[in-house]
Structure formats: structure tokens, C-alpha cells
Amino acid sequence: MSTEKPNLPHFEAVRDSDEEILWMGKPAFIPFILSGIPFLIIGLIWGVLDISLFRVFTKNSMMGEMSAFLTIFFIIHLFPCWGSILNLLRLWLVHGNTWYAYTNKRLMMRSGFWGTDFKAIDYDKIMDLTVTVNPIEKIFGVGTVSAFTGNTTAKGVRIYDRFMAIRDPYEVFKKIKELSVDVKTDWNFPNALRPETNPGYRTKYDPSGKR
What we know:
By secondary structure, the chain is an alpha+beta fold. It has helices at 29-34, 37-58, 67-77, 79-94, 135-140, 169-188; strands spanning 21-25, 99-103, 106-111, 117-122, 128-132, 142-152, 158-167. Among the domains are: 37-91; 100-188, no CATH class. Helices cover 38% and strands 23% of the residues. Helix 2 (37-58) packs antiparallel against helix 3 (67-77). The longest helix has 22 residues, at 37-58.
């Protein structure tokens, strides 16, 4: 499984002193940018319909003084259109600062273009883990690993945290799955090498299986 050099300082600002980065990578540029295409298509269709409707109104000779109000209204109403274009620009800007990693403790994500944002997910919070490879990702030999931690929208739709367009997605998925199970088991069932009185999870997870 390919991996970026783990000693690069992409996560040093948030890495614990006893935390080991086991894998780190970034999304492939073209599939990452193209992930905004579905939203762009919807936005462009919305824009065409809005502009067509606006032209119908502007041809109405009875508009008169309402023309300024309607112009402002349609500019605001076009938000899905220009918002989808801005989203594509956002993806282009954040790509260079987007990195993913998993450690012996958690998943970590880095992004942002005005500044740098970090997000971490402890393994015990992962309720569901999936891996998908869409047609575009398949062309570029990448895929997406998604983790669900229980967060949903107001309508109950699941919110996933994603490692998007990464190399070796199936291997990354399997390793995260193994780590999640091992660390949860390690926390819930302390091994015999820990002291008789165990104040909590204080030992270091060893992916090699050695205790």
C-alpha cells in the first residue's frame, strides 16, 4: 500500500506526543475536483431555469418600477448556480492543503485555504465504515473511505467524514477497520500486561500485535 512519508509535518500541530501516524495521504487532484460536478450540474440547470424565467419577467411591459427588485431577487435566487461554481473553486483552493491520516489512536483530516483546519475522529466513535469507488475514481485508481459517527442532518440524513479520492482505498479501509476493532477491544478488555488496578486506557496500541 502506497503512503506519503509519515515524518512530514502536516499533522504535527495536533499529534499527541505518544501518537504514531501509521498512514498519510492526500486526494488525487482531478477526482477530488470532479467531486463537485454533481452539485455544479444541478446549479447550472437551476441557473438556466432562473435566467429563462427572469427573461420572461423582463419582457413584461407592466414590470415598471419592480425591475430593480426582481433583479436583486433573481440574483439571490441564483445562489445554487453561483454557489456550485464557488464550490468548484473552493475544492481547487483547498486541495493543496488537504491531507488524511490514520494513527494508532484516531483518524485525522486536514483542510482549509484561508487557514488550516483539523478534524479528528477517535476509533470508538466510528459506528459505520464504508469504501466506495465511483466511475471517475476507478479511472484514476482511487476511491473514498467514509466514516459515520452518528451525526445526521435535521432530516435524519447521515453525515459522513471522508477520505476522498485516495490511493489504495480498499487497503486503507481494511487497515482502519482492523485498527478500530483492535483499539476498541484494547480499551474494553485490558491485556494482562497492564497493572491490576487500571485507571483507563494509557497503553500504546501496537499494530504488530506485540504486547
